[in-house]
Specification:
Blueprint (H helix, E strand, L loop, with lengths): L6 E3 L5 E10 L4 E7 L2 E6 L7 E3 L4 E3 L3 H4 L3
Parallel strand pairs: 1-6
Antiparallel strand pairs: 1-2, 2-3, 3-4, 5-6
Length: about 70
């Protein structure tokens, strides 16, 4: 998967940031997303990254701090 460079958007359509790296950790892959406020790490699991469109270079993410409030 070529995820680096994909734009990450929140569920409501707001732009969240851009994928700067994919960390292959023992438990799961983690997306490093560069945002205006710094880097955010989001586990690459369907609950937190429900939509990935490689062709369009975009994805929908639910950052853990937001997921906890839903």
């Amino acid at each position: 998967l070529q995820l680096v460079g994909c734009k990450a958007y929140l569920v409501d359509g707001d732009e969240f940031g851009e994928v700067s790296d994919v960390l292959n950790l023992p438990g799961q892959d983690v997306l490093a997303i560069k945002t205006e406020t710094g880097e955010v790490l989001i586990p690459f699991v369907h609950q937190l990254v429900p939509v990935v469109d490689i062709k369009a270079k975009r994805m929908t993410v639910i950052p853990p701090e937001i997921a906890g409030t839903i």
